[in-house]
User: Fold this.
Amino acid sequence: MSAAALVAGFPCVGFSGSRAPAAASLSALAGLVPAVAPGAAVVVGCAPGIDQAARQAFPGAQVFQASRFGSGRGSFAARSVACVRSVAASGGLWVSFPGSPCPAGLRPSGRSPVAFSGLGSGTWASLAFALGSGVPCLVFLPSGVPAPAGWGLVPLGGGWFHAAPAIVQPSLF
Assistant:
């Protein structure tokens, strides 16, 4: 199954990614835009980079503003937690575009203080929280960014990975 076909089946799609994305990541995002189902909710953060590109592609997106969650670094983590929870509550898909390797020691967790433990990447922390919370995930990793071991990311090809095998396995009946 392709990344675009996967996205098309969800009523809500959340986007997160690097503030300084690779050209390949921006191209991958652009390729998904037409696949998002008409009427699907789109949620995204307030950062530059992938968030900004998603906001431009989906002018009606629900934008989670860090400033509504306080100030300082904690406001960005709280914003991301709220964004992931919104996608989870809607039965949606989390789509992530990390721009650098996963920080050492970060692991998926449904506990936000564990996922957002200050290891340096909000994109990976958001993905860790989404995976730990049971949200189906789609991840684009540009050349040079490896999939972290133990995260359950299954390659789809072309830099795309997914982390909910049940959503792409064909039925036997």
Summary: The longest strand covers residues 12-17. The longest helix spans residues 73-89. Residues 165-173 have pLDDT under 50 and may be disordered.
